[in-house]
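Worked example

This section walks through a single chain of length 215. The input is the sequence exactly as stored; nothing has been trimmed or padded.
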Amino acid sequence: MTGVFVTGTGTDVGKTVVATAIVKSLVAEGIDVGVMKPVETGGGDDAQKLQHAASSTDSIDLVCPYRLKHALAPMIAAELENTTLNIQKIIDCYNRLSSHHEVVVVEGAGGVAVPITQELLISDLIAMLHIPSIVVGRAGLGTINHTVLTVEHLQHKNIRVIAIVLDGSKGDEAEIDNPRVIQQMTTIEHIYTIPQVIDPFNHFFDLERIEKNNY
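Given that input, the structure is written out below as C-alpha cells.
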C-alpha cells in the first residue's frame, strides 16, 4: 500500500487539476485508487472531483473529513466555525483508505506552510502520513522562488519530493528556462510543464516515469 500527497506553492496553482489527472492516469492503468482531501475550505468541490475521477464509492466523510465554509487557511476557518481539526482523525481516515486501495492520492489545501492547527502545518501532516509529495506550481514568472522554497521546506522535514508540475503554461518567455533552473536548484529529477487546458478535469497526466520509480 502506498500514497502520494499533491501539494502546491500556494492557493489556486492547479493542485486539483493535477491530482485528478494523476488519479485518472492510475485508474487507466488498472490501479485501484483511493482519494482524499483532508480539509476543504470555502465550500468547494475538490473532494467530489477527486471522487469522480476515481469512480470512488468511499464515503465523503472518509474522503474529506473536514469541510469548512470559509475560504481561509484551515486553522482560521475552523476557528471561525468553532471546529477543532483533529490530526489523528485525518490520519485514521487515510489509514482506512490505504487499507483497501492500492494507492491513495491525497490533495492538500493551499501551500505547505499553511496551518491546520496552531501546532501543525500541511507539511507536518505529509510527514505524519509517511508518503512522498508532488509539488504543483504556476508555470510563469515567480515560480522559481516559490517552487524552490516549497521544495526546501519539504526536504527540511525529510519529505521526499518525487516530482514538480508547473501548471498553466502559455508559452511565455519567462517559462522557457524555469524547469531547467528549478531542476538545477532542487536536484529533483522529474519536472513536468503542462499547458492550460479547456477542460482540466478530463485532462490526463503522464505518470509513466513516476510510476516506474515509485509505485
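What to look for: The domain at 2-207 is CATH 3.40.50.300 (Rossmann fold).
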